[in-house]
Description:
The protein contains 14 helices and eleven strands. By secondary structure, the protein is of the alpha/beta class. It has a single domain, classed as D-Maltodextrin-Binding Protein, domain 2. Helix 7 (171-179) links the parallel strand 6 and strand 7. The model has no long low-confidence stretch (mean pLDDT 95). Bound molecules: (2R,3R)-2,3,4-trihydroxybutanoic acid. (2R,3R)-2,3,4-trihydroxybutanoic acid (EAX) is lined by residues 30-31, 87, 142, 168, 189, 205, 209, 230.
Amino acid sequence: MKRFILLIFIALSFIFTANIFAEEIKIAIxxxxxxxxxxxxxxxxxxxxxxxxxKYKVSIFHSSSLGDENSILQQIQxxxxxxxxxxxxPIGNFNKxxxxxxxxxxFKDYEQSDKILxxxxxxxxxxxxxxxxxxxxxxxxxxxxxxxxNVRAVNNVNDVKGLKIRTMDAPAHVKLWRAFGANPTPMGxxxxxxxxxGTIDGQENPLSVIDQYxxxxxxxxxxxxxxxxSPLVFIMNxxxxxxxxxxxxxxxxxxxxxxxxxxxxxxxxxxxxxxxNLKAHGMQVVEKLDLNSFKAKIGSIYEDAKKTxxxxxxxxxxxxxxxx
Length: 324
Ligand code: EAX
């Protein structure tokens, strides 16, 4: 009996020491626990903790507890946060090449976005993040962005005129909404209070985010504009990644890849459900709108991007996706 108790004691102290000495990996997102971002982090956590046999403990900081996406990126650069699942838009403040994905009407469907993001162009963009101290591990998906507002049903671009639209804090988006004739106001996420108080008329996001944030409580109209496809990125502090032994680097790459595939599938499987729920809560949805009127307004945006981002990459992207 004594020996049995001793054995249990030894076993328990092993478990405790393992936990005490587990190294913490901090991952940060701006969205809440019901978001796609969170699901992806959870999957990453599961895989890393299991396959590192308890060497790592992943802590997920959600709901902007560590600030907006720009400030999370700064903290990742500094190394006080290890990783994030961040929208491409704000990453564009740190890296020019990634701005190409925030050009309007580039991707038509998921087949195309997967092919580009998981192919050569995506690799070149992820690689280029290293010059800003980031390791781009894998692309996952925020999704095709759609406009909501509280003033009127938007059927064509003229209906956007003068609307005060919150955009991501990303130059490409501000420029786009100005071109559409709106009054763009960049700010971090979330924005429920601003929508409720009417300091802004509308915003644009994928159906997942619109539903998960119950924007039907504060927005009456939704138009399926799909004007930009937003990738998310599993992004990490480069020094931290490089300091890991080879097999652990491979584990992080594998875990982010699996989590990304899982999250993309979740998003796509649930899109119809998100839309149905928005309608069920009384949102007035314009499904078929005059997208050509929007496309007609983008003017020199592609040409300008060749000058401000990377000419060859923009040409390659337009060539492979056939643009608008
Ligand atoms: O990843 O800020 C935004 O609009 C993003 O799309 C998202 O909600 C956070």
